[in-house]
Amino acid sequence: MLIAGFPAGAFQTNCYVVAPAAGEECVIVDPGQDATDGVDELLREHRLKPVAVLLTHGHLDHVWSVAPVCGARDVPAWIHPDDRHLLSDPAAGWSDTSASLFGGITLSEPDDVRELSDGAVLPLAGLEFVVDHTPGHTRGSVSFRLPGDEIMFSGDLLFAGSIGRSDLPGGDYPTILRSLATKCLPLPDDTVVLPGHGPQTTIGRERATNPYLKEAAPHAGPTRGI
């Protein structure tokens, strides 16, 4: 499998391309601020043809370049319905103070937007991406797993040594703890976590050292009502 990525823009949001191998179809995950040149470079370098863009959530730093990336390659974008409104109203995902920093920024939906659901399996580019709805950072946050390869694209749910913030609109701390408990803790220790920011890690490392996963452990159980 080929997974390549780079931190995009001022937010240093990790954007990834995922393919079975060089020279094949691929999926792009979270094209953030000023990500188009970096995406184009990876596609040329590895001779890849994108078939879809997957979005872990709707915050501006993860979706900034989704419309131009999708438009240039005529591919759909996938996002959870609870975050779809953020594609065209990015300020709704930030506090009033933060939103003022983005004055004048206008975004629009790609021409083809498709909605994700918890537990869905997306057969894309010769791979099968399992969708886990993981609210708490935003209402529509998701992670994507490649179970056979024990890989998780965690977005802003789980970082190396930390977790995503829950104090922005749509965020909720008890909810993100439940998402960690029900979607991360059950995974094998050797699951590689590719987060939305910062270096990669593993579930085993985070289980042993991440204080938030230790706090989440008592919340493990049925997910009904999340």
UniProtKB/TrEMBL annotation:
Cofactor(s), by name: Zn(2+)
Pfam short name (any one): Lactamase_B
All copies of domain Metallo-beta-lactamase, residue ranges: 12-197
CDD domains listed in its UniProt record: metallo-hydrolase-like_MBL-fold
UniProt keyword annotation of Hydrolase present: yes
Keywords: Hydrolase, Metal-binding, Zinc
A GO MF term: metal ion binding
Coiled-coil ranges (or none): none
UniProt keyword Ribosomal protein present: no
Database matches in InterPro entries: MBL_Glyoxalase_II (IPR051453), Metallo-B-lactamas (IPR001279), RibonucZ/Hydroxyglut_hydro (IPR036866)
Database matches in SMART domains: Lactamase_B (SM00849)
PANTHER family found in the cross-reference section: HYDROXYACYLGLUTATHIONE HYDROLASE GLOC
Name recorded for this polypeptide: MBL fold metallo-hydrolase
